[in-house]
Amino acid sequence: MTSTRQGAESGTDGVLEIRNPKSAIRNRGQAAVETAFAIPLLLLMMFGAFQVARVFWVYHTLHKAVRSGAGLLSRTSKLNYCDQSDPMFLNVKNFIVYGNLQGTGDPVVTGLTTDSIYFYPERIALDSTAVDDCTPSCGNPNNDLDSCDIGAGGRAPDFITVSLGPSGLPLELLFPYVQWTTINLKVSVRVPLTGG
Description:
Elements: E1 8-10, E2 16-18, H1 21-74, H2 87-98, E3 118-124, E4 131-133, E5 159-163, E6 169-175, E7 178-185, E8 188-192
Antiparallel strand pairs: 1-2, 3-4, 3-5, 5-8, 6-7
């Protein structure tokens, strides 16, 4: 016959284990303190992971929209790339920002406007592999055949670059009760012209 006292238990191998009820209470208190230290760190890591994922999602969405608009513009024929007031440029800006040519609905990314879309016609430089911006030749009265101004007898550029301008799209990083910083997402796509 085995008898056990309060606070003592018989182990599986027949050895008597003595437990102190006060140490169990202290262990519970220690676990609560450790949890209180760990929860803010875990929340910080969780919100940081959400922000990193949000930045990647916004950048991917912007890149996809700009790439689609650049592809649409590259297949357009008989477009004077020196005349940025051409209705096709506005259609492409609407397509990038809203996903349709009419410019209706919500922007694909909050804060994106048609004013933040820039077009740069480019040409491969003579006797070189470098690509130069041919916008300076636009409107020049001494245009030659290597000009991008097709209205003045030049030829269409070799490439069109569509970008979100020099500063990009500002994206504010969100965190509860804290004002973090704003980062600028710079998206630029260069495509060869196929529309002539």
